[in-house]
Structure formats: structure tokens, C-alpha cells
Amino acid sequence: MIKTVHVSHVGRVRSVNEDSAWIRHLEQGYILGIVADGMGGHLAGDTASRLAVETLAADLATLESGLSAHSLTAALSDAILHANEVIFQTAAHDDKYHNMGTTVVAVLLNDASGIIGHIGDSRAYVISKGVVRQITEDHTLVNELFKNGQISKEERENHPRRNVLTRALGTDSEVQVDMDSISLEKGDVLLLCSDGLSNLVTEDQISKVVGAAENPLEERADRLLHLALLAGGDDNITVALFELPDDTVSLSEKGCDA
């Protein structure tokens, strides 16, 4: 049984938390998790991220059970594209929401396998045996410069324009969704997060905190959030964890022979 937890914090600088997060074990047996990081100024950013979460949650709540990976991919992609339409149309009909948008990273799990849909610079990582692997690719200007060889990895991490997005949910009438498949092994943890975490907490720190399987999942999520706050907390911070427990760890925690 996959364990889940999510936490969010406004951070030390912002007055409003424009991040939204949502995790549910659906009746059909799937697990749906969403992290969205809104943008667009007062009220608009949190409205955009909330609309993204609400639209995805509503569209995917009625999925049939036993769907193939192909069908789940199509369902998640369609839901994200629907959210894009909802946010874009809401902004078009109300001046106070002009040009609002949001990132989104969402996972639809069926047992240990799943599909990730992604737009923007919120990220998905898999932490496996102490190794952190980034699943998603940031849709940012700085990442494009890095891919084209114009800046180094170090320059990418510290670039003053690293938060400029090249793709977002809701800012245009049409958008492309990146889709990735994942498969978790026992002991693996999937992390979804906003850039309020990934900009301030290193992969080495993520590995150490998330890999400490002897600690409850809730404690590990809180620790990641706390590290981002200690590093400055200059943005909203959201963390969502999905763990496929290692049975041998559970047994050893209870003092039994594995």
C-alpha cells in the first residue's frame, strides 16, 4: 500500500500561498496527486492553482477501474488540457485574473506504476536507494539556455532569471503537456514539489531526508519544508511524497527478523 503525505507553507517572504496541493486515494484504486504553483499577482495566482487542482480532481474522480497505462495517460493529459481551458477562459472574462497561470505536476498511480503530467517548473523526483532522479524537465528560459550549452549547470541553478517560464498552464489557449511513465520499486519515494523547495534544497539534502525510511513519511515531508525555510523561504513551499514501503524496513522497525 502506497503511503502519501503533502505539506505546504507560505514561506518567509510572501503574504499569500499561491501553491495548491491535493492527494486522494480514488475509489477505483488509483492514487491522484497534484502540485500547482500559481502566478499572476494578488488573488490570480492562488485562483489559477486552485482551478487546476479542482479541474483535475473532478475530471479524474470518475475514471473506470482497471484502465491500461495508455488510457490513464490520455485521461491525465485530457484533464490537464481541460484545466488549461478553464483557467484561460476565467482570466479572459475577469480583468483581475488577467494573464494568470500556474505550473502543474500531477501523478496518477495504479499500484506501483503511474503516469506524470507536467507543465512549468514544479518537479517530480524519484528517490531510490539514496539516488535522486529528476523525472520532469523544467519549462524555463534558463533550462533552455542550459540545454543549448549557453550556460553551465552551476549558472543555471543560480541564474537571476531562473524562474522565467517558457510554458505554463492557463496563460495561452493551447499548451503542450509533458507525460512521463514511472514505476516504483519497494523502498522508492516519489516527490512532487514546487520550486520553493527545489530552488533552495539540494538533491543531496533531499536524498538524506527522504531516504531516512526509519522516520515517518510525515516527518520527512516536514523536514524538507523546514530546510527550505532555513535556506531563506523566499517562495511558497509545497511537498508531496508517495512511498512504496520496503517490507524489510517495516519488519526491522518492529524488531522482527526480515
UniProtKB/TrEMBL annotation:
This is Serine/threonine protein phosphatase. Residues 4-244 form the PPM-type phosphatase domain. Transmembrane segments: none annotated. One of its GO terms (molecular function) is protein serine/threonine phosphatase activity. It holds the Pfam family PP2C_2. InterPro entries: PP2C (IPR015655), PPM-type-like_dom_sf (IPR036457), PPM-type_phosphatase-like_dom (IPR001932).
